[in-house]
Amino acid sequence: MQHSSFFLRTKLLPPRAASDTLRRPRLTERLRSNDETPVTLVAADAGYGKTTLVSDFLRDQPRPYVWYQLDHTDADPIVFLNYVAQGIRGIEEDFGEALISYLAEANEDLVRSPERAADLLINEILRSIEQPFILVLDDYHHIGSETPVHKIVDRILQYASEHLHLMITTRDLPPLAIMRRRAGGRALVITRDDLLFTDEEVRELFRTTLNVDLKDEELSEYRDRTHGWITALQLVRQIAERDGNGNGRPDLTEILKRSERDIFDYFAEEVFSRENQETQDLLLRLSLLESLPLHHCSLIFSGYRC
User: Fold this and answer.
1) Nearest in space to 206 (alpha carbons), one of 193, 194, 223
2) Which of 64, 73, 168, 216 has the lowest tally of Cβ within 10 angstroms?
3) Closest among 104, 95, 122 to 2, alpha carbons compared
């Protein structure tokens, strides 16, 4: 393809499998049971294991798949569609000639009527792809809300063949008609609450990685302090592994307390720093309090959107 030199090929590579990844059959079975519907959405904040869950699921299922990791540059519909076409070429070598030719000459018409390009993509899939496959759009939130790409994706979901299953990971619910499809049994949505580790999964994590069986009081402490957030649990595990010296069972309650700085640093880098100034100001004010019900927050900080 004449445009291939302009592609960052690593954006089309799936994440490498980590040796210490905890399998989550509770969730992968839900993904597997939904693979005959058009779309799966996995939506949660940073550090909830969205990408890990989807990549782990893909390794144990038979369909070929395209992995596409998005960033802010992919809000350009020409960039987006070129990457999709290039990714599908990994399944079907001659895929996308008509689409790529159209994109090479596209102008403002594509922004005004992105559905035309989506139709070309859909027709190419119908013509060229004979086996079911999965298209993963990872980190979809990076393209923002004001982009024609959303119209393209909605068009694909509406008219694409049954051969295509779309999987989207995102921190925010995108402006797509997925909830309507969910109500009609045509979409699976996995949220933050689904991704939180259950008590049994927390036990299995420590049993598998540290060879430690959590006591009931330790499990209760971890439930109260982490609420099943995988990033906090992984940071605790890393500290326990780093401090391990073979001199008996680690004090997991003490390690949890020591890990709070690392958890804060992760939150500051991945969550706080990405928010707008108004949200940062509100979070700084709320941080002085142990807890605050949402309706009280709205009364006390009436100038903010609690």
Assistant:
1) 223
2) 216
3) 104
Q: Which of 196, 136, 121, 193 is nearest to 170 (CA)?
A: 136
Measured distance CA(264)–CA(48) in Å, rounded: 15
Strands (E), the chain: 39-43, 65-69, 133-138, 164-170, 187-190
Query: Which 8-state DSSP code applies to residue 42?
Result: E
CATH code, residues 4-195 = 3.40.50.300
User: Could you list the pLDDT tens digit for every one of the 306 residues in the chain?
Assistant: 334 447 899 999 999 887 667 789 999 999 999 888 899 999 998 889 999 999 999 999 999 999 999 999 999 999 999 999 999 999 999 998 999 989 988 877 787 889 999 999 999 999 999 899 999 999 999 999 999 999 999 999 999 888 899 999 999 999 998 988 887 788 999 999 999 999 999 999 888 888 889 889 989 988 888 889 888 888 888 888 777 655 667 788 788 877 777 777 776 777 677 677 888 888 888 877 777 777 777 777 777 766
Closest CA to 83 of 36, 126, 143: 143
**Nearest-CA neighbor of 207 among 196, 219, 217?**
219
Residue found by looking up tokens 């989550």 in the block? 24
CB 82 within 8 A of CB 100: yes
Q: How far apart are CA 297 and CA 133, in angstroms?
A: 46
Q: How many residues does the chain have?
A: 306
d(CA 274, CA 46): 11
